[in-house]
Amino acid sequence: MSECITKDDFRRMVAGAAAEIRLNHLMLGELDCAAGDGDHGATMLRAVEKLEKAFALDGTDDLKICLSAAGWSVLGVDGGASSSLLGVFFGGMADAGSNDLTDMFEAGLAAVRKQTKAQPGDKTMMDALVPAIIALRRAANAGKSLEEALYDAAASARAGAEATRNLQARYGRAKFLGAKTLGVPDPGATSISLLFEGFYNGLTSSKGEPTNA
Amino acid sequence: MKMKKFINRPENIVAELLEGFALSHQDKIRLVGNNLVARAVPKAKGKVGVVTLGGSGHEPGLSGFVGEGMLDVSVPGEIFAAPGAPRCLEAIRLADYGAGVLFIVLNHAGDVLSANLTMEMAKRAGLNVKMTLTHEDISGGPNPDDRRGLVGFLPVYKVAGAAAEEGQPFDACFEIAERMGRNMRTLAVAVETATHPSTGQPIFELPDDEMEIGMGQHGEAGTGRMKLKAADETAEIMLNMLLSDLDVKAGEELLVIVNGAGATTLMELFILFRRVDQILKAKEIKLARAKVGEFITTQEQAGFQLMIARMDQELIRLWDAPSNAPYFVVR
Fold first, then answer.
1. Which helix (H) or strand (E) holds B53?
2. B61-114 residue pLDDT tens
3. Strand order in the sheet with B286-293
4. Packing angle, helices B109-124 and A81-93, rounded to 10
5. CB contact under 8 A, B110 and A33
């Protein structure tokens, strides 16, 4: 079934995602210390701040315009590959043919795939992003509600992120660390799982402030 | 171990270091727009612009090489993190003097991602830009995609910047940058880690009595972890790997750069270079030019990068051409 969403729906999803990142940014930094330089939490904080700002802008109710602006401003976070790919993801959603959430997320993923050859299994954000979006599509095809679909997506992202614990990095800077990356989940995949968790929380919260429940 | 650095708030490091850098070289460079480092006196119209990007925390790389005869604009990112495409695009517009812009990119995942996005946006905006990728770190294996860009950016900035300054056409500047890139090889070795200045975390761990050959710019593991060796033996191992990879023959002319990683002293770098020179002489390879010092660092990491590059007469002439870049003055 088709589930069109509005700017306000997405604003609440973004607020939920920002709350999740704020709650967990220290943990993201610690994960990143194992295989990176420990700045992933700080990068994600800056990214969600930009996202929130883009959706707080008055003057337009057009979701696509907000997503374009959000994508551009996340690109400007200057946080290396993670912020660039997130910026591409949100900006790419604006290229979807409709305001259907699944179409938009798929368009975002397609834009990311144009920029990185990383595949699930390489221990990157793709390990959470790809299963999340597959779950969204599956839920949509099964006629589930938007809330149910996001619930499934968050669960799949979480499982994907958790599974990166047993993977060896094959992409990005961490690939040079090889077996040293075993045993610790990928920070980028973990961030994606937190974002989806937050999208779900934000969308299902009453139309006021999001909760972290 | 507690980090001992003279910084203020971690989130202000990049802004404050750029401010201090610009203030200390007011005659040569200035900060423009969103913290882009640009020449104080822009290049004349009709010449090729030269732009680069890269994370901060590697001073004097990369912005220390903005100046007449080298870069027009550099785009500094956060600590060890590439800047995003919007500021790179802004830099390219700034360095567009009507003859095309050469975009020099060091091969690191984040930098390449930003650079590719920038190139797409620049093409859509109708800008005339060509990107050249430096990837000369032989520890990445035979596949050029896996070879990182290390101190080899220096000769590429220098020869391409000199060609642009003397008014060579866009295609020629691009060809010179690519030729320099194809003919250089670098290998790094690390003996002590550095701390990330924002997070206070060590960027890698290495036992007291070991060194790692092939260590990347940010402590990415190499392939050759071994017991610490004396200068001569270390230089010999590394130089032989480089000579073999570049397939250098007797009689050929090389540029050699020994780049300190931050905590390795000039004293040590000179001792290492002396051994490099001895080996080259024994193999009847000519030392065309040499440079020993700190061009790209990683905080207080100890270790060095050894770079060799096969030079021809034009590359030597461009290497010798004048530059007023704050950290690469040639008169």
1. strand B49-56
2. 999 999 999 999 999 999 999 999 999 999 999 999 999 999 999 999 999 999
3. B224-227, B210-213, B184-192, B302-310, B253-260, B286-293
4. 40
5. no
Q: Where are the domains of chain A?
A: 7-204
pLDDT tens-digit series, residues A14-27:
999 999 999 999 99
Q: Domains of chain B: which residue ranges?
A: 10-182+320-330, 184-311
Which residues of chain A does B225 touch, with a Cβ-Cβ cutoff of 8 Å? none
Query: What does B257-272 look like in DSSP terms, one character per residue?
Result: EEEE-SSS-HHHHHHH
Here the ipTM equals 0.88
Distance from CA of A206 to the nearest CA of B (A): 34
Beta bridge partners of B258: B292, B306
Closest Cα in chain B to A45: B11
Q: Which residues of A touch B110 (CB under 8 A)?
A: 80-81, 84, 172-173
Domain B184-311 has CATH 3.30.1180.20: yes
pTM for this entry: 0.93
Return d(Cα B224, Cα B183) in angstroms, integer: 23
- pLDDT band for A211, please (50, 70, 90 cuts): very low
Strands B36-39 and B73-79, by their bridges, are antiparallel
Tokens of B149: 């860009």
Q: Which conformational region is residue B305 in: left (phi greater than 0), alpha (psi within -120 to 50 degrees), or beta?
A: beta
